[in-house]
Amino acid sequence: MSLRAFALCCSLKKSPAGSSSELIAREILAALADHDVDGDLVRVVDHDVRFGVSLDEGDGDGWPGLHERIMAADILVIATPIWMGQPSSVCKMVLERLDAELSETDDAGRLSTYGKVAVLGVVGNEDGAHHVTAEVFQALNDVGFTIPAAGGTYWVGEAMQTLDYDRAGPKPDTTGAATKTLAANAAHLARLLRDTPYPPS
């Protein structure tokens, strides 16, 4: 049975503007497809997601629709640019909204996110990819997602320059290799968790 992935692109730019974060997210989805994982992608800023920490902040909040798609997926892909050494504000808002998962449990008391795998793509023209990865993975793990070995891939251009990933020409083999490893490990782990769920605690 094929798996399902859902990618949240945390670019600050609305569609159809070019986005390096969307590019790396689509590369991750393409690599996952090699392992029988179907997937799709949205840019969070194309939806009216409200600030907050609940499942639904009301008044036309765009998060419930995205949340439904997250819960229908086996693998969550997050892609974020680096801004001032940090994940984007959009990415941080996504993590804040995922905080609501701490209150969502099944009949055995397990978080509803248990059994779901999360991976990350990071892009920027400054240093900080490891710091961003650490911040995002810690938050995702806190709310119940499982992080596979080598679950992050990234590209950073020269610091204090303006070249972005989507305009960088040929992509480095290191980023491509990391993306392929991410996909293989994520698909493997998602199948294991689907077939053998975590035990009740």
Structure overview:
The two termini are 28 Å apart. The chain has 5 helices and 6 strands. With 201 residues, it is an alpha/beta fold. It has helices at 20-33, 63-72, 89-98, 129-142, 173-195, and strands spanning 3-9, 37-43, 75-83, 86-87, 117-124, 152-156. Strands 1, 2, 3, 4, 5 and 6 form a 6-stranded mixed beta sheet that branches. A hairpin with a 2-residue loop joins strand 3 (75-83) and strand 4. The chain has one domain: Flavodoxin domain (Rossmann fold), CATH 3.40.50.360. Helix 1 (20-33) crosses helix 5.
Q: Strand pairing plus helix content: what structural class?
A: alpha/beta
Query: What is the approximate shape?
Result: globular
At the fourth level of CATH, the homologous superfamily is: Flavodoxin domain
Overall pLDDT score: 95
Ends apart, CA distance between termini: 28 Å
The number of E-state strands comes to: 6
- Determine the strand fraction and express it as a percent band: 15-25%
* Low-pLDDT residue intervals, each spanning 5 or more residues: none
Instruction: Count the DSSP helices.
Output: 5
Rg, rounded, reads: 16 Å
Tell me the name of the CATH class: Alpha Beta
Order of helices and strands: EHEHEEHEHEH
Sheet with the most strands, sense and barrel status: 6 strands, mixed
Tally of distinct domains: 1
Q: What is the third-level CATH name, the topology?
A: Rossmann fold
Report the CATH architecture.
3-Layer(aba) Sandwich
Fraction in helix: 25-40%
GO molecular function: oxidoreductase activity
Protein name: Multimeric flavodoxin WrbA
InterPro entries: Flavoprotein-like_sf (IPR029039), FMN_Rdtase-like_dom (IPR005025)
Pfam families: FMN_red
